From TrEMBL:
Residues making up the signal peptide according to the UniProt record: 1-18
Organism: Carbonactinospora thermoautotrophica
Full protein name: Extracellular solute-binding protein family 1
Keyword Transferase in record: no
Matches recorded under Gene3D superfamilies: Periplasmic binding protein-like II (3.40.190.10)
Keyword Transport recorded: yes
Length: 438
């Protein structure tokens, strides 16, 4: 669920030292001695690996790049920095809604034509569209997630004599076979409402298609639309199956996301599968199990009536602040991020996916990550960003409220499936109307 102008004399030196197509100037070039500050939410290993990207930029350009941790509330942090005259130059924004907020607050400058050129050459169009607000290109997506992966315990599958499913019907059949073999098919960390929104988004994107997904994300169609009730019906039929999750839905509502992964990959697993994004691999590692050996994944299958498997994503976009002290060097940094060279640095370190289609898959550290990355790239413009991250926080991102709470109540009250579907759709529409102001 989870971011005065210093003149830079470029002149002929920039023309002589710029790296066409590779982002930024050569080491010791036009940015020698310049400084930028880059703010992001990342901590721990993510922060360490991003600092390796900053170091690569420094080595390439001669500039200095300092990391600034924002904490979880990126919007408040950056607003305070701008008011205090200490704005960073670049911010890695973790949500589309926050990017749009920054742009409409007048906090951002559009990305340069050079950055746009790199993106046009290296990215599917959807990523540029996601970074565009009111016709202006502000955000470069650098690190993203594939949120259409279902992870499974390989030993549990072997014990039940089942194979990873490729279709929804196979998924339901495999789930029943696992239950019959004495293992609950699915662990769901429903105490975290964002897990349930991710389930909904995958089913909805598959069934309704990208165009309707975009319309619902903007509340251009109502949450009582038949496409919404169809997706809720599909989830209700799956989630209400006997023995589908350990202890049933009421128990699942007490399980947080990290624990849902542990339930599948502990020494005495309570379930065989867990749905969530590629970041599940990091949680698996904490259990002592090995991805690719004890654990593997299969793509979220196309839901009933869906024409293709969904690809829901999330990610962090680099933006340049108007109040930053070094916009030109900041633009060069974002241009660097748009190149496969920058993506390779973090991809090699692990825990990273890039939307850059020019990045050689061999940069990823293992076959499983390469498969997940390929799934993301192959989806092309059919990729859609996490819907709840696009919504106003009151609806799509607040614990105990809005969509999170309504879907938790939905999961906990499936004794009357039809009644639950209709009531949930109506509640979603009521809360969306309040949050979107429409």
């Amino acid at each position: 669920m989870r971011r005065g102008m210093l003149s830079i004399v470029l002149g002929l030196a920039l023309a002589a030292t710029a790296c066409g197509g590779s982002g930024g100037a050569q080491q010791g070039g036009a940015l020698q001695g310049q400084r930028i500050t880059v703010a992001a939410v990342w901590t721990g290993a993510e922060q360490d690996n991003f600092k390796k990207v900053l170091q690569a930029f420094e080595e390439k350009t001669g500039a200095k790049a300092e990391f600034l941790a924002t904490g979880d509330n990126v919007s408040t942090f950056i607003g305070t920095k701008i008011q205090g005259g200490q704005a960073p130059d670049v911010v890695m924004v973790p949500q589309v809604g926050v990017l749009q907020q920054f742009a409409r607050n007048g906090w951002l400058v559009p990305l340069s034509a050079d950055v746009a050129k790199e993106v046009d050459a290296n990215y599917a169009k959807v990523w540029k569209d996601l970074g565009t607000v009111d016709g202006k290109f502000y955000g470069l997506y650098f690190k993203v997630a594939n949120k259409s992966t279902i992870w499974y315990n390989t030993q549990a599958f072997q014990n039940a004599g089942v194979q990873p499913p490729k279709t929804w019907d196979e998924f339901v059949k495999v789930s029943q076979q696992l239950a019959d073999a004495g293992t609950a098919p699915m662990s769901i960390g429903a105490a975290d409402g964002w897990v349930l929104t991710d389930w909904f988004e995958n089913v909805y994107l598959s069934q309704a298609g990208p165009q309707k997904y975009d319309q619902l994300a903007k509340h251009e169609i109502k949450w009582t639309d038949p496409s919404v009730t169809k997706a809720l019906q599909t989830l209700a039929e799956l989630w209400s199956k006997p023995n589908f999750m350990p202890g049933g839905p009421q128990t699942a509502l007490q399980v947080e996301f990290p624990d849902s992964v542990s339930q599948v990959f502990s020494d005495e697993p309570k379930a065989a599968m867990v749905y969530e994004g590629d970041f599940v691999a990091g949680n698996i590692a904490t259990t002592g199990k090995k991805v690719g050996q004890d654990a593997n994944f299969f793509p979220f299958p196309a839901a009933p009536g869906g024409s293709q498997a969904p690809l829901v994503s999330a990610g962090d976009a680099a933006v340049v602040l108007k109040a930053g002290k070094n916009q030109q060097a900041a633009q060069e940094f974002v241009k660097f991020l748009a190149t496969p060279d920058a993506a390779k640095v973090w991809a090699t370190a692990g825990g990273f996916l890039s939307p850059n289609k020019k990045l050689d898959a061999s940069a990823y550290p293992d076959d499983v990550t390469r498969q997940i990355a390929k799934q993301l790239i192959d989806a092309g413009d059919a990729v859609r960003f996490d819907m709840s991250d696009q919504a106003p926080a009151a609806f799509g991102g607040t614990k105990g409220a809005g969509e999170w709470k309504i879907l938790q109540d939905f999961l906990g009250n499936l004794s009357d499936v039809q009644g639950a579907v209709q009531t949930t759709a109506q509640r979603l529409e009521q809360e969306a109307t309040k949050a979107y102001g429409s």
